[in-house]
Design brief:
32% of the residues lie in helices and 21% in strands. The chain contains 17 helices and 21 strands. It starts with 5 loop residues before the first strand and ends with a strand. The chain has 468 residues and is of the alpha/beta class. Helix 2 packs parallel to helix 3 and helix 9 crosses helix 10. Helix 9 (274-286) links the parallel strand 12 (236-244) and strand 13. The strands form five sheets. An eight-stranded parallel β-sheet has the order 4-10-11-12-13-14-16-18. A five-stranded mixed β-sheet has the order 5-6-7-8-9, sandwiched between helices. The longest helix is centred in the middle third of the chain and has 16 residues, at 159-174.
Length: 468
Amino acid sequence: MDDDPVDVHISDGRIIDISPVGALPVRGESIDAQGAWLVPGLWDSHVHTLPWALAVERVPLQDTASASEAAGYMSTAAPLTDGRRVGAGFRDALWADDPSLEVLDAATGLVPTYLINADVHSVWLNSAALRREGFSSPDGMLREEDAFEISKRLNAVEPLHGDRAVDEAGRAAAARGVTGIVDFDMAWNIDAWSRRVDAGFRAQRVEFAVYPADLTRAIAAGLRTGDPLAGGDGLVHVGPLKVITDGSLGTRTAACTHPYPDDDADHGVLNVSPADLIELLTEATGSGFAAAIHAIGDRAVSSALDAVTVTGATGTIEHAQLIRHADIARIERLGLAASIQPQHALDDRDLVEGYWSQQTALGYPMATLLRAGVALRLGSDAPVAPLDPWQAIAAAVYRTDDEQAPWHPEERLSLDEALAASVRSAVRPGDRADLVLCGADPRTASQATLRRMPVVATLLGGRVTHVS
């Protein structure tokens, strides 16, 4: 982001020269950026693509203040074409009352109704939905594996419907400068992405994850992390093995050293035992898969690092929201990257003060990780937070998104650090022409401007995917 205006020359999808304005002849198509600022194409390193794309069809519940209010919202919602009402984004940990089957049933009656927690680690169903899905729960709440199963069923829409939603969402992401995503859908993603590319998806580069249930199938198919997807037009590649080793803060299931308040026996849950994690990572590493290990609580992070030490696995710790001091250095020594979502720190700050008041590990330690030499990758966890790298960058730089003082300002990143953690290329000759033209200078932008950064144009391999 130098100050002097330049011309950037592109050929065959790559930058071939950067010269003073007018110094070299312009050949072929051109974009007059009129003094806009140029940055590399932005990546979101943690996306649940189909739920993110389908979010526009679901009742938004992020602003509800109580279970009764959320139930009331759902009472008037129009059912989807499959007869189910679906809402998403509630945070019951901040509600004034507790979810109950009675409250939800009274509001929603016989229409199967589903409310998905913002963190996706729990869902609230009415009796009609529980019967339809074959589950039972005294308060209608399902957590962890049961919640994931419900989400998978809700996401199992007709393929053409889902593909159209993903294509539209990809275009919206391109309008925010997004040129790449890491897809963590809980599905067999090979078929889905082959189909989407065949149908014309060209908005982003994609790395798609494989989950443990499909690892054997993926190995048998000869897949390895980094391989291009056949028929993926060079845009889609095999990503890592995704392993969800613990729960979440909002559902109070993140695995922590010290107990949650009011229950000395409640330390969260380890969804994958240390022995099973070692077995999984051994198989994955030996078969050419990197690992993306979901570990939110400090006990889960330590378990993940122990398994990586034994197996030699490579990859990322996903979320890394609570980390023991000694484990900061271990992450660096093991060569792992920390894939973090800065907006979560702001959305969760009140929960941290409550649920993690007894913890002694470091919470959301972005700057501490970076200073220790750990590579950072920023993302959104969409649809948990909006898929907008500018929001993530602003959250990392300012550590606040409202009138409150910055939360733990010692963990703030500089703009250059946050931007570096959001890209996979550079503006220099020889690099891919994945580029974003910005309508304001990111270095001097206010918090508000950085969050809503005007994007003049987005290029993917020199091809325009968005222009304002």
